[in-house]
Structures are given as C-alpha cells and as structure tokens.
Amino acid sequence: MIKPPRYLTDFDLTDLPSLDFDAIVIGSGVAGISTAYHLGKTAKVAVLTKSELSLTATRYAQGGIAAAVGEGDSPESHFEDTILTGRGLCDEEAVRVLVTEGPAEIATLREIGAAFDCRPSGSLSLTREAGHSCARVVHSKDTTGGEVESTLAATVRGMSGVSIFERVFVIDVITDDKRSVGVLAVLNGRLTAFLAPVVVLAAGGMGQLYSVTTNPPISTGDGLAMAYRAGAMLTDIEFVQFHPTALHTPVSPRFLISEAVRGEGAYLVDKNGVRFMVDRHPMAELAPRDVVVRGEFEVMRATGADHVYLDCRHLGGAYFAERFPAINDELLSNGIDPARDLIPVTPAAHYMSGGVKVDLEGRTGIDGLYACGEVACTGVHGANRLASNSLLEGLVFSRRAATNARAYIEKHTGRSVPPLKSITSDDGGTHTEGRAVMADLKDRMQELAGVMRSAASLTALLAFIRSKAGYTFPGGPWADDYELSNMLTVGYIIAMAAKTREESRGSHWREDFPEENDEKWRRHIVIEEGGDEWVKLKII
Ligand code: SIN
Predict the structure, then answer these.
(1) What does CATH list as the number for 421-539?
(2) Which H or E run contains 163?
(3) pLDDT tens across 114-169, in order?
(4) Is residue 390 within 6 Å of ligand 1 at its C-beta?
(5) Among 44, 11, 54, residue whose Cα is nearest residue 170
(6) How close is the Cα of 228 to the center of ligand 1, in Å?
(7) 381: exposed, middle or buried (C-beta count within 10 Å: 0-12, 13-18, 19+)?
(8) What is the pTM of this model?
(9) Closest by CA position to 86, among listed 514, 391, 377, 299
(10) In CATH, which of 3.90.700.10, 1.20.1050.10, 3.30.70.360, 3.40.630.30 is domain 243-347?
C-alpha cells in the first residue's frame, strides 16, 4: 500500500532560493485576505495565491453575510439557528464568538468601503436564507462575495507590509519538530522556500473533488492535504455540504442560484410543477440545506428526473432582474427567462463544514501554523453549515488568528531555520495518466461519497483511491499533479470518515443508517496522519 509521502517534492533548504517574512498567508479568499489586512499593519506578510488575488471561492459567494444587525434580531437568535442547523455537533463556545463578534466585522467592512444594499432609511437591507428564523443576511445584490473580496483586495494592495504573490502553487508546509517554519512553493516555475515563523492556511475548500460542484477550479483541497501531511488534525470531514440550487447545465463549476432567491420567495417544484418541500419541513423551501437537498434527491429518485426546478415566475421579471442582476444575466445567457421559465437545478458540492481542527485563535496544534476560513474547522458549522455563516466565519476567525499570530511573531522572530531536506522516492505516474485519474476520481466521489453514501459505496471508493495512490508525482512540474495527489488524499480521508460514521446527520446521509443516533454519534471524528497506516482515526 502506498501512502502520501511527508512532502510531495524533494528539497534541500541549503540550496533552495528562499524569501523571508514574518508571516505567510496561503490563500486570498475572505479569510486569507482579511488575515493579511490585520497582520500586515504590524508585520511583513506574504500572501501566496494559486490564481489571481481576487479569483477565489469568496468571489463566487452570492447571497451574503449572516449577522445579527437587524432591528429585533439578536446574537442569541443567530446562535440558536446556527446550533439547530448544525445538528448537535456545533462547538457552542465557537458559535458564541461568531455571533457576538460578527456585527463588528460588518461595520469594519463598511468602514473600508464595502457597499452593502440599504433601505431608503439608510439601514442595511437584510434578506432571509435557509435555516434563519428572520431576515439576517447582509448583501450586495447577488455578488456579495465579490464586493467583500474586491474591498479587502484593494485595501491590502495599498499596504506596505503586505506582498502579494499571484499564481504561486504552495506544495507543502515545512515543519521542524511540530513547528512550522515556512512553505515550499512553485514561484515562476521554480521551487522556492518562503520562510516565516507564522504560516496561516486559508486555502479554502475542496468542492472540485466532485464532478458536480459550485466551487472554482482552484478548490482542490490542497490546504487540507498539506495540513494533514504536516501532522495537523482534521475533523468533521465527512460533512461535505451540497447546495440545493446549482443551475443544471453540463459545466463545471455549476453556476450557483443563491439561496437568497428562495429567501425572496422562490419555490422548488418537481417536473409536474408540485412544490415538494411544503410537506417535508415547516420552513418548506427555507428548511436547512441538508433537508432541502434530501428532499430534492428523493424527488429525483421517485420521478426518474436528474433535476428539479426553481420557480421564480411569481416574483416578477423586473423585481428579479433588479434584485439578482448577475443571476438574471446568467440565466438569460442560458436561454432561461426567470419571468417565464422554470429554472432547472440540482444539488452540487459546495462547502466543507469540517477541516483542520483549530482552537478559537486559529491554532492548529503545530507551533506557528494557523488555519482559518473554509479549510479550518472552528466547530461553528457542526454537521451542516447555516447559510451565509461562511463569510462571517472567515472574517471573525481570521481576525482572531491574526491577533494571536502577531504575539507569536513577536516572541519568535529571529529564530533560525535548520537546514532541512527531504528525499522522496518517486513512485508517480505520468502527467497524462494523472489527468484521467482526476476525472475518474471526481465521478466516483460524486457517485460514491456524494449526497447519499453507504458502506458499500465508500468501500468501493476507498479501494479505488488505494489503487491510484501511487500518483504522487514527486518533483513534477505540473501544479495539477500536486493537486491530484492532494485530491486523492482528501478523498480518502472523507471516505474513511464517512464510512466510520454509521448514522445520518446533517449533510452526511447514509442509505444504510438513515437515522440520527445521538447516543452513539453525537461525537466528532478526528483524523491525523497515521505513521505506517494511511490515517489514524479517533472518535471524541
Ligand atoms: C448562496 O448564496 O446561496 C450561498 C451562500 C452560502 O453558501 O452560505
């Protein structure tokens, strides 16, 4: 059996080109860029981003940011909705932090120039999304993530303490005796070491492991895999959230039709035009995402259809175009007029509710290595994330990570980096083979570890990944070969955790264990690198 090596490439720090910083931030979505914003005021920060600064999953976020800023709303109510949606697995302390510190983050974004929609009175206009008991979602039409991303990007671009490196592929976090000392990355085609006492993983999610996803091409689980190889713990990784309404077209990523569309009154109907959520949950179309996705799945199975429909016709074409201009344009360019036509939609892999296990300050357990945003698991999402809590989590916990990291840098600046090196045996395949394996992996993840799983499907998936585990391509020049290694590792970990959890809870739905089992399973699965075995798995 071949398991991933500690490092995906050979290196010798004594003869690698290297660059020194106080902190290295991997990723430039909301969590990464906001970490850079906070840390860059006092420290020398490098932001390493796989694509362009603003081409991240954050930019794709349409609906908004949940925060208790409305009249009559309260952090307590936001707390209760988050806990209820998380199906018994949220960390209450983390949720308390999220909901009480959230409103200040909205104020900070507005101070630095983010423009959110307002009512004629000047107060913020708020919308509803699934699982929320009131209108609580701050938005900027249907491109809220874009507004947040571009505001933060413009701000950090003007900061002398922040250096931005675009199109840099980070291969691994370098560690010395459970202390992180920097990262190995491909910069301008050359293996380069970025050295710093602090490394902040903000590398986002893993939706691209699935053939049907709303996530951009960069979301290949690199951060999860490199944290795992470095010895950090991963938790709640079986909870891959599917979004109920991705536009049903044969492209990847699928275009998202924001939950805010249902928040503004759209219906979900089957091929006969019947609303199927009304009898399934008191909140109907605004039930939590896991409930809606299961409803869709059951309807599709029963009717033999491969999609259901969103019905927005009663909202009025002019209203729809004004409130959701980007969605309206995309639909029209696909020949769908939301004023007249039903919109075909399916569930699509959307968000990793688990991730690298961190404390409330973003610490991973490896000295100097922090994680925040989708790659991290603070415990706020439990088994199923509440809509629009993701941007909020990125903002709140990146600030906390930055505050802690600042103190860490003060204590550890000037510490020397030992002459580390690694020799990895080359057991990789060819690049061409790798492309085919990647496509195969995505299809199998979709079919065997998607919305519904079973012991049989997960066993088949694990066997497939083990058979391909030689595709590690050490030293290979292609970023997508490293990505494939990461995807195989993350797919394996997801399948292991999903097979272990013998119940259905939140976004983890087991055909062979359809009930939620609190007595046995109101617990977390924690996974770490397993020495001679692939993984060590604990249930806590
Ligand atoms: C959406 O706009 O539906 C996505 C929001 C989210 O993922 O929370």
Answers:
(1) 1.20.58.100
(2) strand 162-165
(3) 999 999 999 999 999 999 999 999 999 999 999 999 999 999 999 999 999 999 99
(4) yes
(5) 11
(6) 27
(7) buried
(8) 0.96
(9) 377
(10) 3.90.700.10
